[in-house]
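Thread: quick sanity check before group meeting

JM: Hey all, I'm pulling together slides for Thursday and realized we never actually wrote out the predicted structure for the chain we discussed last week. Dropping the sequence here so it's in one place. If anyone has concerns about the input, flag it before I start.
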Amino acid sequence: MGRLSFLVRAHRSFFWQLRDAYSAENLQRKQLVQHTDVLDGRVDGEVARSCDVVIVGAGFAGMYMLYLARNMGLTAVVIESASGVGGTWFWNRYPGARCDVESMQYSYSFSEELQQEWHWTERYASQPEILAYANYVAKKFDLLPDIKFNTRVTRAAFQEEESRWLVSTDQGTQYQAKWCVMATGCLSAAQTPKIPGLDTFDGRIYHTGNWPHEAVSLSGKKVGVLGTGSSGIQVIPELAAQAKHLYVFQRTPNFSIPARNKPMDAEYENSWKRSYSERREKARSMPAGILCDLGDKSALAVPAEERVQEYQRRWAAGGTGFTAAFADLLKNAESNRTAAEFVRERIREVVKDPSVAELLTPVDHPIGAKRICADTRYFETFNRENVTLVDLRTNPISEVTPEGVAAGSDFYELDCLVLATGFDAMTGALSKIDIVGRQGLTLKEKWRDGPNTFLGLMSAGFPNLFIVTGPGSPSVLTNVIVAIEDNVQWIARCIAHLIEVDGRYIEATQSAEEQWMEQVRKVAEGTLYTQAKSWYLGVNIPGKPAVFMPYVGGLPTYQQICDEVAVDGYRGFSIGTQSPCVERRQVNA
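JM (edit): ok, ran it. Output follows.
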C-alpha cells in the first residue's frame, strides 16, 4: 500500500509537470491552433467546427476544464446556454441566494495568485459575489474567447468510424471533437411542478432556479412561495420583508441551522492566505472536502450534558458543520436522534405559535439525510404577522386559478407565485440533451432505471465522453469546487495519457461500472441517507427511478480510488488504438 500511495502522489505531481511541458511540445508536434473557429468539412450538409475538446457548460467545472485543456496545448470550445459564466450561480439570482460553504473554501485552489488577490466580503458569499468571482476568473485567464454563449447543446452523437463526437446546438452550429466533457452541473435543471391550472395564473410566476435578471419588486403584493428546501429557506425571509403578505406552502419541513453570516474578518482572511496550500490539503483529507472541526467520537459515547454542550457550541457557531459534531450522526439512528431533537427544541423555542412550530419541525427523516440547510432568521420569519404557513400534507393544492391557489378547503388570493421547487438533480441537465453513444445507444435509454457510471466519470457505451461530478461521485455531498477540481484534473490526466499512448478512445467497461454502482449502493445503505425521501434519490421528480446517486464514502476515499485506477493503467476502462467499429469488425471477421 505504501508503494501504491507513492505512485498515486507521483501521478498527481506528474500532471502539473506535464501541464507545463506538454503545451509547448504538443503545439510544436501537432501544430494545434489557438482557438476553435476551424472548419472541418460538412456533416449532414452543415459546416462543423473542429476542435480537440468540446465542453458543455461554463460554470466552475467548464471554465477549469477549458483552462487545463488550453495549457495542454489542446483546442477547446465551451458551449453555454446562458449569456455569461457562472453556471448555477448565473441562474439562481433569487433574494437571499448564498453558498453554504464558507467563501474562503468555496473557491478555486489551482492558482495561488488568484487565491491571494481575490477578496471575499462575507463569511458565506452571496450569489452576486460568487458570480462576480466567476467573471473575474474568466477574464483573468482570458477564457471568454473560447466560450459560445446563448447556445444550447441539443444533441451529442459519437461517430464510431472517426472516434469523434458530433455536438449539435440550437443555433444550428455543430462541433466535432475527439473528447466531449459534460460540465453541466448537478443542480442546474430547475424543476417546475405539474400543478393543475398553473399555466392559467394571471400573476407573475418566478422560479428560484431561473430568477429574472432585472429587479423584482414585491412591495405591497400578496406572495405565495411553494417549497421549503434550501432555496425556499433562503428566499422566504427576504420575501417576507417585502411582501404585503406571504403564504408559505410547505409539504415537508426541513432541518436548518443558523448560518451566523457576517462580514469577512480581516485576520481570518489573512490567516487563510498565509497558509492556503496547507489548509487546502487538509480539507481534501476530510470527507466533504471542507476544512472543519470534525468530531471523532460517537454521540452516545459522551455524557448527555457534554453532548448538549457540543450541540450548543455548534448551533452558536452556525453553518452546516453542525452535523460534524460527532462521528456517527449519519450512521447511527440513535446518535442522530440526539442531534435532531436538539434542533427540534430550538425550533420550538424560536417559533412563538406552538402549532406553527410543530408544522415546521421535521420528524420524518434523520437530520442530515436530506441536504441540511443554513439560514438567516428563517424560523423567526414565521413570527411575523404578514406570514402564513400552509400545511400541504393536510391541505394539498388542488389547483391554481387565475387569481391564486386552492389548497384543501381554503383559497389564497395571490399577486405572484414563487416556485422554490428545486432541481432535477445530478441527471436532469444531461437528460435534456440527446446523447447517443456506440451503436445508437442513448444515455436516456441506458439510464432509464437509474444512472450507471464508473466513478461518476464515464458510462459504458459512451467512449471519450467524460462527466464532471456525475452520479456515482461524491459531488453534492462535498465542497463541490474541490470535487470539480479533482474530477477535471483526473480527466485532463486521462486525455494526456491517451495522447501519449496514441489511444483513439477510452470507455468504461460494463463490469467495472456494475461493480462500482454496487459499491455506491452498499456504502449508501450503510448510512442514514437512504432513510429520507430526498433529491439524492431523485424522488422529487415524478417518474424518476429512486436510486441513491452520490457516492457517500467520502472525498478522500473516492479520490484515492480514482488515482489508483489511473496509476494501474486505467483499470476498469478499455483503451483502443482503433475506432470501436473497426475493432468490432475485426472481432467478427
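AS: nice. Residues 198-419 form one domain. DSSP finds 17 helices and 21 strands in the chain.
JM: adding both to the slides.
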